[in-house]
Structures are given as structure tokens and as C-alpha cells.
Amino acid sequence: MDQRKDATAATIAAHAALAASLPADDGSDFDKAKRGFIGTIPNAEIPGAWSMAPYAFLEGERPDTVNPSLWRQAKLNALHGLFEVGRGVYQVRGFDISNITFIEGERGYLVIDPLTSAQPAAAALKLMREHRGDKPVTGVVYTHSHVDHYGGVRGVLSDDDIAGGMQIVAPEGFLRAAVSENVMAGNAMGRRATYMYGATLPKDPKGHVDSGLGKAVSMGQVSLVPPTVSISRTGERLTIDGVEIVFQVTPDTEAPAEMNFFFPAFGALCMAENCTCHLHNIYTPRGAQVRDARAWSHYINEAVEMFAGDTEVLFASHHWPRWGAGEAARFLKQQRDLYKYIHDQVLRMANHGLTPSEIAADLALPPSLAAEWHTRGYYGTLNHNAKAVYQRYLGWFDGNPANLHKLPPTDVGARYVDLAGGAKALLAKAKAAFGRGEYRWVAELVNHLVFADPANAEARALQADALEQMGYQAESGPWRAFYLTGAQELRTPRPKSETPRQGAAGQLRSLPADDLLDSLSVRLNGAKAGAAADLALTMVFTDTGERFAVSVENAVLHHVAGDGGPAVSLTRPVLIALVIGETTLDKALAEGGVSGDGAAVLGQLLPLLDRFDFWFEIVAP
């Protein structure tokens, strides 16, 4: 039975108030998003990986359950197919959350950002070949180190291409950032990403409608082929298949390793994911290190100075292009000032003594920026980006000693319930607040009861109802997904599991040996290791020829290159299989996957390493 509710009168009123404050819509964004359309495949249907068919409801009138501004963005992001961006430059949009771009060279196609997974990338290349000729891929460029810009590379490259030394270009530091950014905290980030992208939500007017950055993430085969060329210097030039590229490195902006670049022959500027048609995340709610808004703004300004005057068309890794030097410069300057304004104003208010929540409540864009659609919070928001800038400079603590050593949620929840006069009294007050449309207060209040008594069905239902209305009101795609996923899990809790329900080990399998061992240190259970004897062994990776001295001292796992104790020989895949439980040590020994006197020490180490449950609770203890 569908437990989801309709929009309340308070939500409908909130939508009407927002609609009255939105910028004037002259249709120009829709014109830009449709410009140069060549062709597509029906519903962008890619078996097993992607389809726009579930979003057919976007062709109708906006329902009361969707924010009017997000609805507009969702319709824009639903446009799909092959588009001519400019002379020699083509994009396939709407086959994934990101764009894939093709540059026509002398012999074939240079591919920029081959999407998240292989099937959509292959479908995009097929569409390009159908309309522009059956030519080979002659090079690949990764703009930055997020998976939706490299994960589909196997859809455009073959094993022969890779063995033949195909040029794959990326910014310096790409490989380490790509394989490690989501590993140390990968289980938590992955679980939170199911909330951020609404992975378990139905695709309908009461569920997932858009991610803001694009429609959604494709679900095909993800892989990583390491780059063969690293760009380390702004102004560096490279010619691939007769096409000259001028690079601008932009580290620590939207990604740890990222770069913009310009094609002089085509007057085409690629801004990667540094400038897209919305306010991006300075902090991503799935969890990651806070980005540097000041550096972000600086590099956009540098791009203005380097390229804007010669730009005929500006395109990016998401959304739709801008045409003309004047329009490109205007867009870049507004995006530049968007991030600098947030950075500067947060620090101004922090220096007046305001706390993160106070700053987030007060911060508003100046009229010149607020008048633009591309500055709106479809992905990032002013609210959580303000807190991100504060965190980058001042950390999580707001200076109030009452917040220095707070009680954990279950303890504080029980005390708030007692203070309210018990569960019934708290629920009565929360229901009255819900009737007044005070959903944020309801969510805060009932959260205490849910954490004090997660089995209280009435509390879970009311909390879900409040989060649902907040989701319906959200302009940000990720905020909507977070709220609605929380409501879903409160109403239909996932059964407990006696064993960890582990996430995919894809990122682990991509790690170099040194990083793999580093990642194991966060799996070491300190309590178990502290009660055990210290360990030392030499781990010999037969697939890479590397040797590491691995030890446990003071409940800390260490490793350095070289020898240190009895040796155990194995491959990285075998070690990963042992750690995540895909095989046992006895089986690996019997099959010859593990050998050496150090196997006994490895047998003592493995039980000390945790296996993480991907489906840990978020909206309940």
C-alpha cells in the first residue's frame, strides 16, 4: 500500500509564495537546452542502465507535490539526445546525470567525460556515429575525478585501444583522487548517496523528479582506465588528432583534481563542472571534504581572463551551453561572484560572532545574482553552503560551550521526551505544529522521540509526514531526495540483518596496493585490536611485485614498503576477497591464492578488520 500523502495546504501556499518570487522566465533556457538538436533514441532507453520513460509525467502540469522551481529544472534536464554545440563540438545530454562531449578531429572523435557507466556511453557514441560518421575514438579527456565523468570509459574504448596506448588525459592527481576520495569513508558516503540521489524512491510526482545537476545516475557497468597524460600546469597545450587544447588546472574547486580547457580552432571553452546552470555544492550532503569557495571563484575569474574574449561557445559537464563571448563572460562572472559572495559574506557574519545556523538563516543573494536562474540552489543550497564555508575555516564547533560536549541523539532524545511530559504529550504538541505547517519544528521535535523509541509507530509516521512535506517544498533535488527517502525508511523500515550487508567493492578493487593497505587501517576494530597481541608480517603482492611491512601496534595498523616479519604472498584481489568475506583464508590457502609462513599472522589480523553494513540506519538509531 502506498503510504505517501498529498501536499498539504501549507505546502501549496509555500509553492505559491516561491513562484511569485522567482526570476522572470522568458524561455531562453529551454531555447538553449534545445539548440542544435540532431536526434535521440526513444525515451533514451538503454537496457539495464538508463531510461527517461519513468519521467514521462514531466510532460504534464506541475503537481502540488513538487516545488515549482525544481519542476522547471526537471523539465530542462529531461531533454535528451545528440546536440551540435558549435563547430566540431557535439554533446549527448540526458543519457546520464552528466554530459558526454565529442570533438571532431582529423581522423575521429575525441571524447570528453564518458559518463558514469559503460552502456550509456556506448549508446551515446553509437548515436554520434549514426549522425556524424562511423569514426574511431582517438582520445579521451577526463575533466575531473568524480565517477560520473570517467566511469563509462569502457563504453567508448576497447582493450585494443588501451593496449595500443590511447591518449587518456586528466588533471594531475586525478587517479589518487578518483580511487581514494570515497574509500576511507566510502561506506558512509555510499549509504548517504542513496539518500542524496533518491536511489530507492519511485520516479513519480511524489518521489524522484530530478537531481538538479541532471536527471539521475545511470546504473550500468562502472570502470576506471587510468590516464596516460597528466596535465599539471595552466597554459599547457596538447594536440590530439589534430585538435589543439589549452588547459587550465583548477585543483580543489568542485573536485580535488579538475581542469577547464579551451579549443582555439573552435572557440569552444569547457568549464568542466566548475560552472553549471545552478548553485553547486561547496559541501556535498553525501559527505566529502568541504570545497574551497575562494579558490573556486579565483579559477573562474582566471578562465574569464584567459578564454572569455575568444569564446564562441561555453559548455560544461552538465546542463546546456552558452553562446557568444559576451554571454560567456557574463555567465562566468556571475558564477564567479556567486561563490565569492557566499565565501565573503559567511566570513563577514562569522567575524560578527554569528553561528553557522544563524548565518545560514540570514544569508541571501544580492538582487543581481538572485535574478538569475543559474544561481538557484537546485543542487547546492545557500543554507548548507553557508555552513560549509564556516566549517572550512572554523570547524564544526560554534564556540558555545553548551555545544562542546553534547549528549548523543538517543540520550538527548529520551530526556526531551521526558521534558515534554512523555511520548503522548510530545506527539500532541508535534501534531498541533504539523497542523500549522511548521514542518521543520515537527521534524526536530519528533526526531527526539524516534531516537528515544524507534518502535513508536505513531512517532515514525508523523516524522515521515513532516519530512515528506519538506521534500515537496524543497527546491534542491538532493534535499527533496533526502527528505523523501527519510520518510520512506521511517514508514517501511528495512529488516535488521545478522550479518553486514556490504556495499560493492568496486572502489577497493581499483586501489593501488599502498592505498589499499591504507584503507584497511580504518577497518581495524580498536577494541578488538587493543585486547590482542601486536602483529607483524610482510605482505607480498604477487600481482604488482610490491612488498610491505604490515604491523599492528597500540591498536593501530601501520604499513611501510619493505620487509617486517614472516611473509605472506597473495594478490590484491585475494586480499580484498578475504577482507570482505568473499572467500576464507583456508580456502585461499587450499587454492594457492595465499602462501607463506605469514599466513598464520594474516589469520590473526583478518578477524580484527570490520565489515561495514551498507544499510545502516540514518533516520533512526
Give a quick summary of the entry:
By secondary structure, this protein is of the alpha/beta class. It has 23 helices and 18 strands.
Describe what this molecule looks like in 3D.
Helix 14 packs parallel to helix 16. The protein is of the alpha/beta class and 621 residues long. It starts with 8 loop residues before the first helix and ends in a 16-residue tail after the last helix. 40% of the residues lie in helices and 14% in strands. An 8-stranded mixed beta sheet has the order 1-2-3-4-5-6-7-8, with helices on one face. The chain has a 6-stranded mixed beta sheet with strand order 9-10-11-12-13-14. The chain has a 4-stranded mixed beta sheet with strand order 17-16-15-18.
For the structure shown, list the relevant keywords.
single chain; 621 residues; alpha/beta; eight-stranded mixed sheet; six-stranded mixed sheet; 23 helices; globular
